[in-house]
Amino acid sequence: MSNCKSLSEISQLFDTHEAIEVLRVFLESASVGIYLYREEFIYVNPAFEKITGWKLSELKNKKVWELVHPDYRETVKERTLARLRGEKTPPQYEIKILTSEGQEKWFEVSVATFEKDNQIYCIATTIDITEIKNYSRNLADTLSEYKAILQAFDGLLYTVTPDFRLAFVNKKLEKQIGHPVSGELCYEEIFGLKEPCPWCSLKEVLEGRSVKKDIHIPEEDKWYYVVATPLIYPDGSQHALHILMDITQQKRAQQEILRISKLESISLLAGGIAHDFNNILTAILGNISLLRLRLKKHLTEKEEKLFKQMESVCFRAQGLTKQLLNFAEGGSPIKRVASIKEMIEDTVSFCLRGSNVSWEISIPDDLFLVNIDTVQFGQVVSNIVINAKQAMPSGGRLWIKASNLKLKEPKGPLKPGDYVEIIFRDEGMGIPKKHLSKIFDPYFTTKKDGSGLGLAICHSIIKKHGGHIEVTSQKGKGATFKIYLPASKEEKPTSYNLVQKEIFKGKGRVLIFDDEEVIRETLKEVLEMSGFQVEEAKDAQEVIQKIKAQNFDLAILDLTIPGGMGAKEVLPFIKSYTPKTKTILMSGYSLEAQKVKEFDAFLKKPFTFDELFAVIDKLLPTKSTKNAKNR
Ligand code: ADP
């Protein structure tokens, strides 16, 4: 039989005096605060005194709510008064109180009431829950701190069970995937693969090793830096924690540096070859033109056609050397302020006329001017347009749009400022993602007869102009090339006179300085045909000798003479002996305006006679007359 007794059984065991003694022992030994009150305190036990710091004697005449923290005081007052009126109030609640020293404490209070002589009395027990409250508040703070850190982390973060199931993914990754993925396979949900990723490090991580590596996702053409580390939970279960940082931009920058260094080594080689080749080409072109002039009257239509073909082949070769020279050291652009509207229209129409590709050009009249080498930029446009045409073998459409762009914030490699944005969009076969980062590399081609130099040249030219070129494309969905060129601060484009095909007639003395005999001879012959008196010099000594002996109206000087003094070195002699002599610098390299400013004009080899006479006409206007007949 149980020794436990009910309260009524116990009350039989004690008389009133003994029962009061039991109550006293109970109240004084209890570790929870117990107090009896109406509006004011009637009794508080020692535990209450201990946790509030108030002595029973000090609480006499104090209203119970006076101990309550001001935030809760009004509520407690209302409830107490309601309770004393016999209304129903919550029997249990949490409040904040103030101890006798003003310290804040949290109490959990349970209140009961009883009636005596028609008056309601309240008896309450209270537990100090300050520590629990503080602990749970600290826990909540810590949790929200961790949550905030996880949310602020700009990478992708996830944990994986040993059987490739996702256990946790951060908000950024969940947003990227687009739906909740807990319990799903990591390689399917994150990387869209049917089996574990080729770079998967789960096995090493489960063996206790941390793995760090760069990975490339070809489908997205994105690079990530991955850190995978073992994660052991308190219950002993093991997961792998993965942190992925998108490093695509950094990788692209590295590739850009590599590309530039590749270009630099090619440029050295190209520069050397192109320079010699240019001299040869100048001579061939000159001689063909001369021969054609000499035989003009006697030429049959067929022979005339053959000459034209020879010239056009030479022009193609000239185009090639220009391309090579763009790589070379001296291939820096000769920039002038220009409007690109007409040039784009002409180049596009030239490249696509007669093909099955139609085009649409939209360029506003108020497009910013740009400071460009028009020849080089023309090459950029034609390389892109020809690629677009080749990407649409069964025909299609190419859209070209140019517009002004005012950048307030940096955009990729572009600093804030004014730019002209030119967009070429085709509807061709497109570029697979895995090729996107390679197409600007020299020699990258997917074409049977491609050189892989077209876009590398575009890239190099645009960089030299302080601009930027980029591509977006999807296989089968066309390609879009975007070019950004800094807008020019200058207002008006320098006028660019197209040379008329006219017989040039002039007079005066001309000195030709070139180590290549064939160039000297060709120039001499054509200048003499136009009425000039011509002297030749094959080296600097001869130049100095001749200018000491006679006055020249014009000196045409080659920049580099192997093993000897060239144009720059002989110029001071010319200036001091015959200061009135006009000087033309010739070179196979494109030179910056800065480098040719001591000379009166610059001619880039190979040049046509029209170009030569246009320059002479400017320098010696009083000594020339133009004849309207065709040469
Ligand atoms: P090439 O034309 O000699 O191949 P490029 O440097 O001009 O050299 O182009 C490199 C590669 O870029 C091409 O082989 C082709 O795969 C790709 N490409 C360039 N433009 C386009 C385009 N508009 N559409 C599809 N692929 C293109």
Task: Sum up the structure in keywords.
631 residues, Beta-Lactamase, 5 domains, 5-stranded antiparallel β-sheet, 40% helix, 25% strand, elongated, binds adenosine-5'-diphosphate
Task: Describe this structure in a few short sentences.
The protein has 631 residues and is α+β, with helices and mostly antiparallel strands.
Description:
- The structure is a single chain.
- This protein is of the alpha+beta class.
- It folds into 5 domains: 7-133, PAS domain (Beta-Lactamase); 153-246, Beta-Lactamase, CATH 3.30.450.20; 255-330; 340-486, Histidine kinase-like ATPase, C-terminal domain (Heat Shock Protein 90), CATH 3.30.565; 509-630, Response regulator (Rossmann fold), CATH 3.40.50.2300.
- The protein has 19 helices and 24 strands.
- Strands 2-1-5-4-3 form a 5-stranded antiparallel β-sheet. A 5-stranded antiparallel β-sheet has the order 7-6-10-9-8. A 5-stranded mixed β-sheet has the order 12-14-15-17-16, with helices on one face.
- The model is unreliable at 493-502 and 627-631 (pLDDT under 50).
- Bound molecules: adenosine-5'-diphosphate.
